[in-house]
Amino acid sequence: MAVIETSIEINAPIERVWDVVSDIDNEPKFWKGTKEVRNISKEGNVVNREIIIAFRDQKCQQKVTLYPKEKIVAVFTKGIISGSKTIKLISQDKLTLLQANWDVKLTGMMGMFTGMVKKHIKNGTDLALQSIKEELER
Fold first, then answer.
1. d(CA 132, CA 37)
2. 66-95 tens-digit pLDDT
3. What is the pTM assigned to this prediction?
């Protein structure tokens, strides 16, 4: 498994950060590894969706659960990736700590490339968090 943990401090209250990160349909704007999002179903705070990732334009399915102003957990349920991505928000007075934690691997024969892909996921995550920070601190 590729375990990736990274975070960034954002000079914005948790409510504003939540408004941006919880707009999961807008994910490709910040997460360049996600090329396209198509929702399949929504029930309460759970969204089942299909995404197209930048890695070989592969389709993956996810079950995304939103825990308001706390975290978003995206579990990969089908496709070339298995595991999860968790986005956590931690209020620190007027600042918000935004954390991204991945615990994923490539499935099937592609599993041997998990280590190589880990670096790309880490770089993409760092860029996404920086983009979210810049959007909120304008």
1. 18
2. 999 999 999 999 999 999 999 999 999 889
3. 0.94
Number of domains in the chain: 1
Calculate mean pLDDT across residues 29-33: 94
Q: What is the CATH number of the domain that holds 10?
A: 3.30.530.20
> Which residues, at least 6 apart from 78, have a Cβ–Cβ distance to it below 8 Å?
60, 61
The whole domain housing 90 covers: 2-136
Proportion of the chain in helix, strand, coil states, percent, rounded to 5: 35, 50, 15
Sheet of 2-10: strand order equals 2-10, 95-106, 81-92, 71-78, 59-67, 46-53, 34-43
Q: Tokens representing 59?
A: 């389709």
pLDDT in tens, 37-58: 999 999 999 999 999 998 888 9
Q: Which helix (H) or strand (E) holds 30?
A: helix 27-30
Token representation of residue 5: 């943990």
